[in-house]
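Go through this fold for my students:
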Amino acid sequence: MEIHLLEKQLKAVSDANRLTLLSCLKAGEVCVCDFVDVLGISQPAVSQHLKKLEEAGIITARKIGTWKHYRIIDNPTPIIQAVVDQLEERTVCKCNTGSSCEND
């Protein structure tokens, strides 16, 4: 593995908020709007954390309407996979389902 990529990925996962985001993404794709309640910070702040994970090649996004939906990339590096494996999966309320969130 290229050392600069490893450095970028390790820096990206060295933050509690970003680790929380990854624990939410273990269950699959999540809309950015759902992370605001999970982290209790503003949407722009959430977006900055997601941007760092995306720039490190850990997550990917797709735009649906006005919102971006994020997921962990297919086949992450072994180090990132090991980090994700250590995280407890966290369920988040899905913005488009209209259901109440019981697993915060």
Remarks:
- Confidence is low (pLDDT under 50) at residues 97-104.
- The longest strand covers residues 59-64.
- DSSP finds five helices and three strands in the chain.
